[in-house]
Amino acid sequence: MRVALAQIDTTVGDIQGNVAKILGALQEASAATADFTLLPELTITGYPPEDLLAKPHFVDANLEALEQVAAACGSVALVGFVDRIGKNLYNAVAMCGNNRVLRIYHKRRLPNYGVFDERRYFLPGEDPGLIELGGTMFAATVCEDIWAAEIVEQVAGEGASVIFNVSASPFHAGKGEEREELLRSRARDNGVWLAYCNLVGGQDELVFDGRSLVVSPTGDVVARAAAFEEDLLLVDFAPEGKPGAAEQITRVPGPDEEVYRALVVGLGDYVRKNGFSDVALGLSGGIDSALVATVATDALGPEHVHGALMPSRYSSAGSVDDSKALATSLGIETIELPVEGPFQSLLDTLAPTFDGAEADVTEENLQARVRGTLLMALSNKFGWLVLATGNKSELSVGYSTLYGDMVGGFAPIKDVFKTRVYELARWRNAQPGGQVIPESILTKAPSAELRPDQTDQDTLPPYDVLDGILGHYVEGDRSIGEIEALGFDRDVVERVAGMVDAAEYKRRQGPLGIKITPKAFGKDRRMPVTNRFRG
Fold this sequence. Notes:
Elements: E1 2-7, H1 15-31, E2 36-38, H2 56-71, E3 76-85, E4 88-97, E5 100-106, H3 118-121, E6 130-133, E7 136-142, H4 149-157, E8 162-167, H5 175-190, E9 193-198, E10 200-203, E11 206-209, E12 213-215, E13 221-224, E14 231-237, E15 243-246, H6 255-273, E16 279-282, H7 287-300, E17 305-309, H8 317-330, E18 333-336, H9 340-354, H10 361-382, E19 385-386, H11 392-397, H12 418-429, H13 439-443, H14 463-475, H15 480-485, H16 490-502, H17 504-509
Parallel strand pairs: 1-2, 2-3, 7-8, 8-9, 16-17, 16-19, 17-18
Antiparallel strand pairs: 1-14, 3-4, 4-5, 6-7, 9-12, 10-11, 12-13, 14-15
Helix pairs in contact: 1-2, 6-7, 6-12, 7-8, 7-12, 9-10, 14-16
């Protein structure tokens, strides 16, 4: 028996588009003489469909699409869909073959943590999903089922020698290795073969990395599909369930490569799936906008990226020159829009009201808001999606301006700490083709350039210290006392924690961005804005 694992890039709600992808994958698998094809979790609806599931006509359309897919299945395929029994919905997989639905399995373990809300929509199944084909006992499972040791133990104990798992497992840094080790452990502990088919592509803030696998009963990976791209993985199973020849064992990307590729896929899919072709962003001469511009160029091509140079009275000549050098290196268009005129006009308008008041952050923020207005004007006029360039360090502590540098439809590095921004930029510069981000951008002191001789460290702790604290406070949910015990200065920890808590209202109003850490702002971390708890 030849098994095909078809990791495809679906789009939530595009039921007929997803059907076309499914049928294309089935045709490709058939051409490769596959007897059994696995497709990712909720392939027909896209994942996660969220509150589309509250629309009965959406569920109806998904059920009609399943019949359409089943009618095209001559050989056997596992197809993810939403099943409905009475008023109850189930995250389900249909085994299709002989041009009809043969049987249905309901996901048993429903995740309800982090970005997952499956208990909001679905009821759990009870059927162990055992399938006998060609003298071999298989078991169908869906995503989180495989993380539950007792489910694997049960189906193995009831005679399954091969376990199929169809999945939509979102990426974060290190998740691929964690997932692979878990699958190896499940196979080894239960003496079973395990074929795991994962979704690939971007969906809002989530990225799915593919990396479908076949693992032997000894815990060895015998086949691995590509990361971050559509792929068809083929493995031959003998009658007793033992895989023979595999088409490929794709290498595992390194730590910086996987995060960078996740950003490229997440940005590219968000732009294309939402009907845009081009993006615009402000080029400040700093590292954040340089990385975002580079990711956008890799995702969309240089002809679809437009960089706005918006110097003010405080912008250094070096920043303007660095922006131009970056644009030349990437081959992207630049548009020069000096902000001095509108900035001075706003100052003049406010002068009578502000008479006698000292200049402060108000005037600094006016410059950022002028830039945000100009970027949105480009978006309105040309239909370009504006990319916000803020990083996770800045967003954590509120070192950003509402309606200014937070303006945009998408924030690609929203979940990337500042220290990681530098690591990713240096990794990208080391790739074939040579350095694309000028060294001067990498070595200059970070600055918002909103007042004379300003640097970020005038306001914030050094980024290596700040990011260390934020990792524990934001991602680790540790208390101030616990972080102090790790060797950080208590006064600094208290100040950073206070800034994080006070900036929650800003983050609620910012654009969504790509999740690359275990706990990103948004669905992962849901803090109240009105909140008096400290520490």
